[in-house]
Amino acid sequence: MLKIAVMISGGGTDLQSIIDACQAGKINGTIELVISNRQKAYGLQRAQKAGIETAVVKKNDTLIVSMLKERNIDLVVLAGYLAILTDELIDAYPNQIINIHPSLIPSFCGAGMYGMHVHEAVLNRGVKVSGATVHFVSSEIDGGPIIKQVACDISDLDKPEDIQARVLEIEHRILPEVVGLYCDGRIKVENGRAKVI
């Protein structure tokens, strides 16, 4: 079984979806560590309730890399982690860090596009379809190989909170699915493109 670390900043609903999938035997891996850059992130309580080790680390990727290496982590999952990773961390885990983004990359992504900012921008632009993307993390913000995307119709919605809720349903479905595929060795990156085999 692969060893997984999850990095969070907030409520941890995406984290919970992975915890639930692990407990249901749908992922051939175990969450060994949950790291937050915010002391009061509710996701830390979710992890502790599930008996998972937690840590709060702010702006210190050198320490994070050390913690991950000490625990022989195979996969790092960014699940609502609202900080930009340094090259030190990215280079330590090439194509071993995945992120969930609340839009259909390459739309509404990059610097400043996170959380509710994404859904507000989607609403203001008047797009009719949004969704979620799981991708590998690279040095380009939201620019790594895309693993999975699922779209949803949002033409009937007029509040960013409602768009967020609909997109979250997709996130909670596809993030554990991709983690499971990774743990089964079914994701390969060739020529900058991620493929499920």
TrEMBL record:
<feature type="active site" description="Proton donor">
    <location>
        <position position="101"/>
    </location>
</feature>
<feature type="domain" description="Formyl transferase N-terminal">
    <location>
        <begin position="3"/>
        <end position="179"/>
    </location>
</feature>
<feature type="binding site">
    <location>
        <position position="59"/>
    </location>
    <ligand>
        <name>(6R)-10-formyltetrahydrofolate</name>
    </ligand>
</feature>
<keyword id="KW-0658">Purine biosynthesis</keyword>
<keyword id="KW-0808">Transferase</keyword>
<dbReference type="InterPro" id="IPR004607">
    <property type="entry name" value="GART"/>
</dbReference>
<comment type="pathway">
    <text>Purine metabolism; IMP biosynthesis via de novo pathway; N(2)-formyl-N(1)-(5-phospho-D-ribosyl)glycinamide from N(1)-(5-phospho-D-ribosyl)glycinamide (10-formyl THF route): step 1/1.</text>
</comment>
<dbReference type="Pfam" id="PF00551">
    <property type="entry name" value="Formyl_trans_N"/>
</dbReference>
<feature type="binding site">
    <location>
        <position position="99"/>
    </location>
    <ligand>
        <name>(6R)-10-formyltetrahydrofolate</name>
    </ligand>
</feature>
<comment type="function">
    <text>Catalyzes the transfer of a formyl group from 10-formyltetrahydrofolate to 5-phospho-ribosyl-glycinamide (GAR), producing 5-phospho-ribosyl-N-formylglycinamide (FGAR) and tetrahydrofolate.</text>
</comment>
<dbReference type="GO" id="GO:0004644">
    <property type="term" value="F:phosphoribosylglycinamide formyltransferase activity"/>
</dbReference>
<dbReference type="InterPro" id="IPR036477">
    <property type="entry name" value="Formyl_transf_N_sf"/>
</dbReference>
<comment type="similarity">
    <text>Belongs to the GART family.</text>
</comment>
<dbReference type="InterPro" id="IPR002376">
    <property type="entry name" value="Formyl_transf_N"/>
</dbReference>
<protein>
    <recommendedName>
        <fullName>Phosphoribosylglycinamide formyltransferase</fullName>
        <ecNumber>2.1.2.2</ecNumber>
    </recommendedName>
</protein>
<feature type="site" description="Raises pKa of active site His">
    <location>
        <position position="142"/>
    </location>
</feature>
